[in-house]
From TrEMBL, chain A:
InterPro entries given in the database record: CT_C_D (IPR003833), Cyclophilin-like_dom_sf (IPR029000), PxpB (IPR010016)
One Gene Ontology term of the molecular function aspect: ATP binding
Record-given protein name: Sensor histidine kinase inhibitor, KipI family
Record lineage: Bacteria, Pseudomonadati, Pseudomonadota, Gammaproteobacteria, Oceanospirillales
Domain of life: Bacteria
SMART domains associated with the record: AHS1 (SM00796)
Transmembrane segments: none
SUPFAM superfamilies (UniProt xref): Cyclophilin-like, PH0987 N-terminal domain-like
Keywords: ATP-binding, Hydrolase, Nucleotide-binding
UniProtKB/TrEMBL annotation, chain B:
Keyword ATP-binding: yes
Protein name as annotated: Biotin-dependent carboxylase uncharacterized domain
Cited SMART domains: AHS2
Keywords for this protein: ATP-binding, Hydrolase, Nucleotide-binding
Pfam families in the cross-refs: CT_A_B (PF02626)
Domain Carboxyltransferase: from-to ranges: 24-302
GO MF term set: ATP binding; hydrolase activity
InterPro entries tied to this protein: CT_A_B (IPR003778), Cyclophilin-like_dom_sf (IPR029000), PxpC (IPR052708)
């Protein structure tokens, strides 16, 4: 069902060098698929210098030094209306699998989440790792992907006092969202474990492991596997 | 062939016109806080418009030249001296080996631009040398470091120099208090009273003003506004958090956010705003997108025509 979808998207100017395309008022899988498709279609468009897809919108930034605003916005209008809606959802979505060592040793909030949700630690791990998540948006810090949705049984609010330093690769949850910290930043999410793999590598061709629209799965690994893959235990 | 940093000052950063094409990965654009001053500095030296310069915030910054070149300084008047002789911004100067160039403290404005003939040479990261400290990207080292004592800033030496200055007509007025705002798609969600209040009040720059954004204090607007679903943030966006005090998001802004936006500061008004300091006062002035575009074309045409 594509009831909440606004298509073609509504185009609003944000300033003289940017416009926002709105695809829906609500967060929805189909909406995310359409946004991913339109982002792809616009990537080839001359004169567009940046695209910021998010949950229900796509911000488009254009090069006003070399291109005319009216020509660009007309091009954006026609390209963003060119997606074949019948193919939405049929396309193979890219799946990213992230190995995670779930343990209080690297997941200091695992026990509290289990207690608060009246579950065992094993249940929390099973629930978190048996869900396929979608990358709805990337932001907060470079490569930080907002993934949804976490199973209702393990939904927890953010911590009342954020940690000043969340270790690299920490896997955490907050409300209906989950994420992996790609760099060391302050953060208030509940930390369940840690991945040994790098989410971003600005020196590599691929840059970031997860892009908006991708599907993400967490694969539980043992302490030995974590260490063998280069995982670090310290950091708090 | 380089300038050597003798005294690093408060904040001196290598910048070009910014890192573009990576905002979908959460990487901000960076770039010069005062784009107009930056563009003029490169124009004065007939450099590529994207050639890397040093953005000097506040001053206390001293360099020693290890070779001859030609420089341009634009933007704030930071009481610069060349071998202890006062020099003024918005023009070029010849530099010889051993010369000492110093920026002391602000007389007008906050951020000065130092360009060198051919641009400063640094290895770009993701297509740009723009320094974003928070993201640990760009700059001399590639890891987002600000300039520090002993750094060598390479350039291609030259003894050719052309004495040039920006025409008086084109000089920005850093005393101007009106900041131009294009009202965005969320403007209509603010009440008539809030809109009137926003455009008729005086706002003061708080202590929390940096390359990421400027937090203002003054008449609260839109306190009843609810958060929105996080979306991309354009340069100059004016966010209204729940305390109703506007935040203008600038070059190092986060790429997405969930606060409602009352409008967007234009590129060149954002440049003026960036030259202001905590406790300075400003007022917002409505302009249409068409007016904003005309103003930009006019400024750009002045630079191009002059080249």
């Amino acid at each position: 069902m594509i009831a909440p979808l606004i298509y073609p998207p509504q185009l609003d100017l944000v300033s003289d060098h940017a416009c926002l395309l709105t695809f829906s008022k609500v967060i929805d899988d189909t909406v995310a698929d359409v946004i991913a498709q339109v982002t792809k279609a616009l990537r080839t468009c001359e004169g567009i210098i940046d695209l910021v897809p998010s949950y229900t919108t796509l911000l488009v930034i254009f090069d006003t030094d070399h291109y005319d605003r009216f020509k660009i916005t007309n091009k954006i209008k026609s390209l963003s209306a060119s997606v074949d809606l019948n193919t939405i959802g049929n396309n193979e979505r890219r799946e990213v699998i992230i190995p995670v060592y779930y343990d209080p040793e690297v997941g200091p909030d695992l026990e509290e989440v289990a207690t608060q949700c009246q579950l065992s630690i094993e249940d929390v791990i099973r629930l978190h790792s048996s869900t396929r998540y979608r990358a709805f948006a990337i932001g907060f810090s470079p490569g930080f992907a907002f993934l949804g949705n976490t199973p209702e049984a393990i939904r927890m609010p953010r911590k009342t006092t954020p940690r000043l330093k969340v270790p690299l690769g920490s896997v955490a949850i907050a409300e209906q969202q989950t994420a992996v910290y790609p760099s060391i930043t302050p953060g208030g999410w509940q930390i369940l474990g840690r991945t040994p793999i790098a989410l971003v590598d600005w020196q590599s061709e691929s840059l970031a492991l997860i892009e908006v629209g991708d599907m993400v799965r967490f694969d539980p690994i043992t302490r030995d596997e974590f260490l063998a893959q280069g995982g670090q235990l310290n950091g708090f | 062939m380089a300038f050597k940093v003798i005294q690093p000052g408060m904040l001196a950063l290598l910048q070009d016109l910014g890192r573009h094409g990576y905002q979908h990965l959460g990487i901000t654009s960076g770039g010069p806080m005062d784009e107009l001053a930056f563009r003029w500095a490169n124009a004065l030296l007939d450099n590529d418009s994207n050639a890397a310069q040093i953005e000097i915030t506040f001053g206390m910054f001293t360099l020693e030249a290890q070779a001859s070149t030609s420089i341009a300084i634009t933007g704030a008047d930071l009481r610069a001296t060349l071998n202890d002789k006062v020099i003024l911004p918005w023009q070029t100067y010849p530099i010889h080996k051993g010369d000492v160039l110093a920026f002391h403290q602000p007389r007008f404005g906050l951020r000065a631009y130092l360009a060198v003939k051919g641009g400063f040479l640094a290895q770009p990261v993701l297509g740009s040398v723009a320094t974003v400290m928070r993201e640990k990207l760009g700059g001399l080292t590639g890891a987002g470091d600000k300039l520090s004592k002993g750094n060598l800033l390479p350039f291609h030496a030259t003894t050719q120099h052309q004495q040039r200055a920006v025409p008086r007509l084109a000089l920005p007025n850093y005393d101007q208090v009106e900041i131009d705002v294009v009202t965005g798609y969320q403007f209509k969600h603010f009440s008539g009273l809030d809109r009137a209040r926003f455009f008729s009040s005086t706002y003061t720059l708080s202590q929390h003003c940096d390359r990421m954004g400027y937090r203002l204090t003054g008449a609260a607007v839109g306190r009843d506004q609810k958060g929105i679903i996080s979306e991309g943030i354009a340069y100059g966006a004016i966010q209204i958090p729940s305390d109703g005090q506007p935040i203008v998001l600038l070059r190092d802004r986060q790429t997405i956010g969930g606060y409602p936006k009352i409008g967007c500061v234009t590129n060149f008004s954002g440049a003026l705003l960036s030259q202001k300091k905590p406790d300075d006062s400003i007022g917002f002035r409505y302009i249409s997108v068409d007016q904003a575009e005309r103003e930009r074309h006019l400024q750009m045409a002045r630079i191009h025509q002059w080249r």
